[in-house]
Amino acid sequence: MNADVLIAGAGPTGLLLAYELGLAGVPALVLDQALHPDEQPRANGLVGRIALVLAHRGLLDGTSLHPLAAPRFPFGPLSLELDRLEVDPLHVLPIPQRDLEKLLHDAAIGVGATVRRGHEVVGFDEQDDGLTVRVHGPTGEYRLTARYLVGCDGGRSFVRKHAGIAFPGITSDEVARMARVHMPAAEVVVADGALAVRGVRLALVRPNRTATGSITITPHAMLDPSADPDVYILATSEPRPPHLPDTLTLEDLRASIHRVIGADLPITGARWLRSTVANSRQAETYRVGRVFLAGDAAHLFSAGGAALNAGLSDAVNLGWKLAVAVQGTADGLLDTYHAERHPAGRRAILHTRAQAALSSSGENAESLRELFAELLRYPGPSTHLAALLEGSDVSYGPGPLVGAWAPDTLDEHLAAVLVEPLRSGKAVVVDNTDDGRFAAMTGPWRERVDSVEIPGACLSALIRPDGYVAWADGAPGTLREALTKWFGTPRTPIRAAVPPGIAVRP
Ligand SMILES: Cc1cc2nc3c(=O)[nH]c(=O)nc-3n(C[C@H](O)[C@H](O)[C@H](O)COP(=O)(O)OP(=O)(O)OC[C@H]3O[C@@H](n4cnc5c(N)ncnc54)[C@H](O)[C@@H]3O)c2cc1C
C-alpha cells in the first residue's frame, strides 16, 4: 500500500483529518489538484464547538487565538442577543480561512502527513483489501494504492460523484454578489452599528432587506483589527438571472447595489469579486465501502457560519476511527461515522434553511421575521438556536451522559483530567473505584486508551479521542464491550505521533 489513508483535498477538512490521523499514528497522504492554496478570502472565522475542539487539541498554542463567547450573532436577518443569557452558548474563533489552512497544514506535516499539490484524483476502483486510485500529477497520470480514501474535495467533489453518492437538496433562486470594497472615510459615517452614506442608512453586519433584495456590509476591521478601516466586506442578494456570467465585475456589483438600495455607494475600488448561488445539499451517505466523504464534499449549507463547524467536526469524528481500523480490527466502527455525522449535518441543514427562509422576500417571510423577532426576546428560543449554531445539540449516544461531549458534561474536576488526553488525541478511562478495576481493564488497549484513577469521583467513564462519552458507570463487562466496540483489537503496535509540548508517560 502507498498509504493507509489517502485524502483528496487539502482544504481545512482534509488537513485537519490528516492531523487527526497523524496524532493517532497513521501518516496520511493528502493530494490536492491546486498547485497553491486558494488566495480568495473565504471564511473569516470559525463558529461553534469546533473552536473549542481546536483549542483542546492544543492547535492554538503559540498563537494569539482563543475561542471567544459571542455576545451576539446573526440568525438570518435577525440577531441573537447572547450576552443576555446566563451561560455562553456560542463560541467563535476569529481567524481568516487562509491562516486556518496554514495552521492545519503545518500541524498535519508536524505529525507525519504528506501533502502533494498539483495532484488531482481522477479515478478509483475498490478491491477487497483496498483501493487503486488514479492521480493526474505534474508529470502525468499515475496510480496509488490505499486502504481508505476520503473525499475532502469540496462541494463539487469528484470522489462523491465517482462513488455514485447522490447529493440531494436545493439550489437557491437568489445570487449573492460579494467583494471587499474601498469606501473613503470622508464619504461615509459609521456610528451606532450602522453606515450612513448619501442619505441611505444601512445596518452593519446583518442583511438590510429592500423590495428588490438585500445588502450586507461589514467593516473588515471588525473581523481583523489590522485591516484598512476604509475596507468593507459587501454582499448583495437578488433573484438569480437566467444567465449568470462566470466572473463578477465592479460595474455589475455597482449595478446590483443600485437595484437593491436605489442609490450608489462611493466605492473607489474592489478586490475579490465573486458571485455565488447558495446550495443546500447533503450526501445521501457519508460512506460507501472504503470511501468516505467529509466537509463540503458531504454537505453544503444555505447560510454562513455552519460549514466549517460541520466539516471540521466530521474530520475529528472520522480521524481516530480510521486509525483504529488501520491499526486493528474495528467491526462496525467505521459505520458509526455516517450514523453520527449525517444527523449532525441534518441539524445544520435545518437551521441554515430556516435562516434562508427568514431572509427571503414576500409578506409571509415578513411575518415570519416579525414573529421570530418576538420569540427571540425570550431566553429559551435564543438558547435553543445558539445550541444549533454551536452544534452542542448533537449527541452521539442515548444520553444523557453517553454520547454527550465530556467537557460540557463533566464537573470541573473531571474535565481537568481530560486536558492531556484531548491534546494527545487519546481516549481515557476515568475510574472512580477504590480498587482501580476499570483502569486495570484498559491494558490491551494501552496504546490508544489512557486511564486515570480518581477514587470517590462522581462517576467512571470512557471518553473517546474526540471528547465524547462512550461509556459511563456500568459493570466491568460493559466497559470491556465498549472498549472493544470503539477501539477494536489492536493488530499492529501503534506509534502515535507526539505533538509538541505533550509529556510522554514512561
Ligand atoms: C466567500 C465565502 C465565505 C465563506 N464564509 C464562511 C464562514 O464564515 N464560515 C464557514 O464556516 N464557512 C464559510 N465558507 C465555507 C468554507 O469556506 C467551506 O465550507 C470550506 O472551505 C470547506 O472546506 P473543505 O476542506 O471541506 O473544502 P474546500 O475548502 O473546498 O477544499 C477542497 C479542496 O479539494 C481540492 N480538490 C477538489 N477536487 C479535487 C480532486 N479531484 N483531487 C484532489 N484535490 C481536489 C480543491 O483544490 C480544494 O483545495 C465560506 C465560503 C466562501 C466561498
TrEMBL record:
Identify the keywords attached in UniProt to this record, alphabetized: FAD, Flavoprotein, Monooxygenase, Oxidoreductase
Entries under InterPro entries matching the protein: FAD-bd, FAD/NAD-bd_sf, RIFMO-like
Any Pfam family: Rng_hyd_C
Ranges for domain FAD-binding:
3-349
Q: Where is the signal peptide?
A: none
The record's section on SUPFAM superfamilies has: FAD/NAD(P)-binding domain
Name of this chain's protein: FAD-dependent monooxygenase
Tell me the classification of the organism that encodes this protein: Bacteria, Bacillati, Actinomycetota, Actinomycetes, Mycobacteriales
